[in-house]
Design brief:
CATH superfamily of the largest domain: Vaccinia Virus protein VP39
Mean pLDDT: 93
Organism: Phyllosticta capitalensis
Helix content: 40-55%
Shape: globular
Largest sheet: 7 strands, mixed
GO molecular function: methyltransferase activity
Order of helices and strands: HHHEEHEHEHEHHEE
InterPro entries: SAM-dependent_MTases_sf, Thiol_S-MT
Strand content: 15-25%
Number of domains: 2
Oligomer: single chain
Strand order of the largest sheet: 3-2-1-4-5-7-6
CATH architecture of the largest domain: 3-Layer(aba) Sandwich
GO biological process, one term: methylation
Protein name: S-adenosyl-L-methionine-dependent methyltransferase
Length: 279
């Protein structure tokens, strides 16, 4: 594994502060809009709704920029996605350009931030998915996802297992209010032999894997609270462990696990790969 240059290390150390700054500006603009345009002063006390509005503004403005430099391993992996798929938390759909539309039979994009839906539909069309891609205003938690899929006719009786050939989860597990419950639900919805394809930024693997950085781990803890508040995302979530134990302890729910850390030395390390549900 190549060692990072000083420039690379410094950039990754300060990048979270830069993005927090951008998100703070969108928070201020959101508050100004609520006070002077909407004049809905009661909304000022609804912090979850304000966070949703502010994140919608932030991602509409910077989502494409933040998604532009995806690693080649991720883009190659996304190009292999096929069949009937569940695209979880696609945001504005900036990753859809990496899908091979010819391999996809039907796709359901579940995105809870409604302000992102117009751009998501536009990017689905640009990616050649067109009528194949259905946008659902729902989160990944079971009480939101299951009714939305039932309403869309995916689940005839409002519940079920083994519906999707592949489930794609890209940079959204850290946003989910109930990531474990959401993953358990996705596991049930995945067909035996189906894949869960993922790319997530995760906690720095210092002490667990060669290449982790103690300094970067400390920086994550420094950034964790402002990052979660302004960007609505958990910076130091142990997503690898969570994925590994979905469907059974010690990876027993999966027949194959192919997960790799990218830039494990970084303040924003990433985990990319896929897991195959046991038949």
């Amino acid at each position: 594994m190549a060692e990072p240059t000083l420039k690379e290390y410094t950039f990754c150390a300060i990048a979270p502060a830069y993005f927090i700054g951008l998100a703070t500006i969108q928070w201020i603009l959101t508050l100004l809009n609520v006070v002077f345009v909407q004049r809905d002063f009661g909304l000022l006390f609804d912090v979850p709704q304000l966070k949703s509005f502010a994140f919608g503004r932030f991602w509409n403005k910077y989502g494409a920029f933040m998604s532009a430099d995806m690693p080649p391993k991720t883009t190659r992996l996304l190009s292999t996605v096929r069949g009937t798929i569940l695209d979880v938390g696609p945001g504005t759909g900036d990753q859809l350009c990496h899908f091979d539309a010819a391999k996809i039979t039907k796709a359901y994009g579940v995105e809870p931030t409604v302000k992102l839906h117009d751009k998501l539909r536009s990017n689905a069309k640009k990616a050649g998915l067109g009528e194949k891609y259905t946008v659902l205003g729902a989160g990944a938690e079971p009480e939101s996802l299951i009714p939305a899929l039932a309403k869309a006719g995916v689940l005839a009786d409002g519940a079920g297992e083994g519906v999707f050939d592949e489930i794609v989860v890209v940079r959204c597990l850290c946003h989910m209010p109930k990531p474990k419950e959401s993953l358990d639900t996705m596991y049930r919805l995945l067909k035996p032999g189906g894949r869960l394809v993922t790319h997530e930024h995760v906690c720095n693997p210092w002490g667990k894997e060669i290449g982790g950085s103690f300094l970067s781990l400390l920086l994550q803890y420094l950034y964790v609270y402002p990052w979660e508040f302004f960007i609505n995302c958990r910076l130091n979530q142990d997503t690898r462990k969570m994925l590994f134990n979905t469907g059974g302890r010690d990876g027993s729910g999966w027949s194959e696990i192919h997960l790799e850390h990218l830039n494990p030395w970084s303040t924003l390390p990433e985990l990319v790969g896929y897991l195959v549900k046991k038949a």
